[in-house]
Amino acid sequence: MVYFIFLLITLIYSYRIGQLATHYRYSPSAQLFSYFPLIIVAVIICGGQYYVGTDYPSYIRFFNGSGLEHYVDTGEVGFVYSIKSLLYLGIRGNGIYAFFYFVGFLLLAFFIRGSRLPSQFIFIFLLLFIGFTGLFNNQLNIIRQAIAIYIGSMGALEIIKRKWMYGIFLIVISSTFHAAAIIYLIFLFSPLVEKLSNSMLYGLIILGGISGLVLSSDFLNIILPFLPPTYAWHIEGGAIGEREGLQIITKYIFIPLFILSIKERKKYNLSTIHEKLFKWGIIGFSLKIGLLGLTIISRISDYWLIFSIFPLFFYLVWSWKSSKQKKFYSHLLMLLIVGFYFIKTCVFPSFEYKYQSIYQFYF
Known about the structure:
Layout: H1 2-23, H2 28-34, H3 36-47, H4 56-62, H5 69-73, H6 77-88, H7 94-114, H8 122-133, H9 135-138, H10 143-160, H11 164-175, H12 190-193, H13 198-214, H14 220-223, H15 229-236, H16 245-252, H17 255-264, H18 272-290, H19 309-321, H20 324-347
Helix pairs in contact: 1-3, 1-8, 1-20, 3-7, 7-10, 8-19, 8-20, 10-11, 13-17, 13-18, 17-19, 18-19, 19-20
């Protein structure tokens, strides 16, 4: 219930801020600052999680100073030195979780600002971030990768905006938290991605859908030599399996929406940057469903999670601004996403969607 209430707070607050920012023409910095209270509420909720998900005990051990040697060996020194610095300052345990959440949400706010999204529709982006990507709830289990996703996504965005050196610098930094984040360098191929036609985008979605049904754990024996050490270590240790049918279905239901968004793309009047974000989003979603049958391996596609929001975002914004009928459809779709999130967090909560809090020990 806590997660769902936060979603409602986020939608109401960001919708109102969007109206005010548009009416009074907030500067980008003023708008960013206006989201600070929402970030604090998110940090209080997420930083106070207790034994949520599966990896909480391991990370709490790290956040109390034990077992960090492995990450020095893998080159993920940004993660190690961040923890050691916080421990030196007397911050430990859930306090470090809260710190990483604060950094992550702040980076997300900068990413949204850098994406040049219309102020009045940022609430739609946040709805999709929480209700569609799963990153908001799952990041406690993948806190290293989550920080790398936020930093690396910023770096990829800078590359898309042709700020090559700054983008590469951020991507290298992200890889010191999660080595596989170096994959963001693939965004250097943005000039080629920009040339993708609708037919090619349809093809990517179809290929991803077929791959998600065909690929199984047997495929791992083929690709194991080419995987980053962290993924190979998980697989060889037996921490790999196939997702259940329901988990696959909940992703496949979005395929028609992505296809519809591709169909209507030319009506969006997207800027050059938004065109690139749209196409990288299609690539990201195609990877997500293509690798869905493999649990650990599918985490590679998580690096595109934030980008996968854009095709749905631009479709919903266009629908909102179009005829009354299309606006009704956009409202209905958003209500379905809210309803689906309600089911996951309130009706059948489990794993990272079942909230437990450290605050129970203080009150």
